[in-house]
Amino acid sequence: MIISPCISICKTDPSTGYCYGCARTIEERKIWKNPDTTDQWKTNNIKVIKERLKGWQRESFEESYEHKIKNGISLFKKNSKKDN
After folding, report:
1. What is the pLDDT of residue 75?
2. How far apart are CA 69 and CA 73, in angstroms?
3. 12 in the Ramachandran plot: left (φ > 0), alpha (ψ -120 to 50) or beta?
């Protein structure tokens, strides 16, 4: 199973159409939710979105996504729970 790249920072950049957190388009997010979407498509999409991210944004995404894969929760969501 391929874990969704959503890292709980869900807001779309109006100029690029990419999510600030995961760099996916609205269409890509819909495809991820489709139960017929293949793991091959998801793996390729993760490569594509990582190429969209640069510098600290990519580093931050990768750190949070790795944490989500290992712990079931993104760093942003984990830290948000701490604040409550």
Report:
1. 87
2. 7
3. beta
